[in-house]
Amino acid sequence: MNPLRRGFLKSAGSFGAIAVAIGAGLLKPGELLAATWNKVAFTATNVADAMKEATYGGAAESKDILIKVPEIAENGAVVPVEVTSKIPGTTNIAIFVDQNQNPMIADFEFSNGAEPFISTRIKMNKTSQVRIAVKAGGKSYTQSKEVKVTIGGCGG
Amino acid sequence: MAEGMKMRATMQGDVADVKVLINHDMETGLRKDPKTEKLIPAHFINEVVATWNGKTVLQAQWGYAISKNPFIGFKVKGAKAGDKIAVSAVDNLGGKFHDEVVVA
């Protein structure tokens, strides 16, 4: 792993330093993706744009992405999501929610022995597909599952 | 808001199962203060890095739609009891969070 990248993460947001590093030929532009927050993707307002900007454009459907979500979520503020990718060579798992104002939720990159698995909790505006995108061997794959969100549900 | 983190890492076979909780409001920037009718500014963790004995195993970028007091669970293959797992996070206003745990 490139030791420079750690340094950049610590100084995340210092675009100047990164630009200088590119200029000096120290970094390939592709390596910046992990180190700088992808504002364009996170602020996109539809899922297709968000996926494209997050470099998951044209992802092929795959049954090897296993998504564990509740069928019905009473509280859209806390929806548990668990993803396992069975696709060999998986390096990234990203989570999108079609019906959120900004569909991109998160992108996780795995290295050095981390299993292609992530468990987290997300916010959902309303009933929507929870769309998972996976990167493996330079290709993108996707799978989705619907979660019904009960707005104003009284939790009984 | 009490700031802090909780971490746990336990061996399950040859895989370390790591669970992380970070205390953070994860304010979206879309909510209005009910009294002043003004938008509450966005304040959320947007970058997370996990290391195993100093080597990066997980790098994440987050938007505001990770739930309040974020939870992540991940698995590290090949880890052993006694290994060190560390997690660092940064929020959009420059807040920094760090915790580490020894795999049990």
- Assign the CATH class of the largest domain in chain A: Mainly Beta
What oligomeric state do the depicted chains represent? heterodimer
What is the gyration radius of chain A calculated from CA atoms?
A: 17 Å
Cα distance spanning the termini of chain A: 50 Å
Report the sheet-strand fraction of chain A: 35-45%
Briefly note the CATH topology name of chain B: Immunoglobulin-like
Poorly predicted parts of chain B: none
- Count of spatially separate domains of chain A: 2
- From the 3D structure, determine the CATH topology of the largest domain in chain A: Immunoglobulin-like
Counted beta strands of chain A: 9
Number of domains of chain B: 1
CATH architecture of chain B: Sandwich
Q: Which descriptor suits the 3D outline of chain B?
A: elongated
The topology string of helices and strands of chain A comes to HHHHHEEEEEEEEE
How is this structure best described in words?
The complex is a heterodimer of chains A (156) and B (104). Chain A is of the alpha+beta class and 156 residues long. Chain A has two domains: 1-37, no CATH class; 38-149, Sandwich (Immunoglobulin-like), CATH 2.60.40.2470. Helix content of chain A is 21%, strand content 36%. Chain A contains five helices and nine strands, in the order αααααβββββββββ. In chain A, strands 1, 3, 5, 6, 8 and 9 form a six-stranded mixed β-sheet that branches. In chain A, strands 2-4-7 form a three-stranded antiparallel β-sheet, with no helix packed on it. Chain B is mainly β. Chain B has a single domain (4-102), classed as Sandwich (Immunoglobulin-like). In chain B, the strands form two sheets. In chain B, strands 4-3-6-7 form a four-stranded antiparallel β-sheet, with no helix packed on it. The relative contact order of chain B is 0.31. The interface between A and B is large, with 38 and 35 residues. Strand 7 (117-122) of chain A pairs antiparallel with strand 5 (71-77) of chain B, so a sheet runs across the interface.
